[in-house]
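Field guide to reading this record: the first block holds the primary sequence, the second block holds the structure written as discrete tokens, and the final block holds curator observations. Each block starts with its own label. This record concerns Deoxyguanosinetriphosphate triphosphohydrolase-like protein, catalogued under organism Limnohabitans parvus II-B4.

BLOCK 1 — SEQUENCE
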Amino acid sequence: MGSLSALACDPAQTRGRRFAEPAAPTRNAYQRDRDRIVHSTAFRRLVYKTQVFLNHEGDLFRTRLTHSLEVAQLGRSIARALGLNEDLVEAVALAHDLGHTPFGHAGQDALDECMTDHGGFEHNLQSLRVVDKLEERYPAFDGLNLSFETREGVLKHCSRANAEHLQLTEPGGVGRRFIDRTQPSLEAQLCNLADAIAYNAHDIDDGVRSGLICTRQLLEVELFAHYHQQALDEHPALAHKPRRLLYETIRRMLSDQVYDVIDTTRQAVALAGVQTSDEARLAGPLVGFSPQMKVRTGELKKFLFASLYRHPQVMQTTGQAQQAVRELFAAYVAQPAEMPTDFAVSTDLHRSVADYIAGMTDRFALREHERLTGRKLL
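BLOCK 2 — STRUCTURE
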């Protein structure tokens, strides 16, 4: 790692862990966080959790795990150029989806619906719950006992009500900024943007691979069309190699988005005149796209939403996935003993059922659904 900017989070100045621990002899606080995340059960489960396409639909489609790795790679590249803390960026990127349900956003929406009268369900808050409570690996505390800065980055979004609840249990903790309306660290802001850059790019790749969208449709999107033409101008032979042409288009698109974020963020920091990481938290969002790139990426996102995420074939599997989650929820509430003992004996049954379902992989959820209902979905 290169030299850190004064705006970077310094692991020697971390706000610490919820439970005090001696420092590790060979790793700083954020490296230790990253290692704990990588060795967690929840992280391993991500390999069998849906990004857009269900796990059984193809071996080469992204999963939550490969998505998280791509976010970490993009995040580290940007952090290095800006002098931010790469280790913290990597830890946040690898942990940001730990609370995601099986079946992607379809599973989250169904579980939130089931929990309407019981506090709702939101995957960012669930990711925090995983690292704070649900992982059981250490004798002295629940969760992974990560540093404040990593936990802050994991909690990208939070309702006012949930923030106030967090504030009661952890005064001045990770929920406070949602009440005060301040920003997280620049590293956390960076991860949020790297997440969007990654999924826009890889959903193009997966969408074309699946046959649900095609290059002809994508050429109507300015961001894609620009780099597609640029690649053809420099490498005319790619006209006869559509797969390589797609890869080269996506590569160029990714690179320019990264450079745009770096340049725009440098300008925003200079304009704000901030000198320290704490000052940066008070200055409003500083990591972002230029106005032109923001518009162009927004157009791409709208295209993917309409043409891929709402494609009839995706919607068909989405409906069945949501049915599986709803019926699993009802079955466990009616028969808690069907869950492992730690979940079945909880004093908050509905939250415990949500925790159990959220932790499932796609294929385990489908097996459990078939076991409990006698019907096979998907």
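BLOCK 3 — OBSERVATIONS
Residues 186-311 form one domain.
The mean pLDDT is 94.
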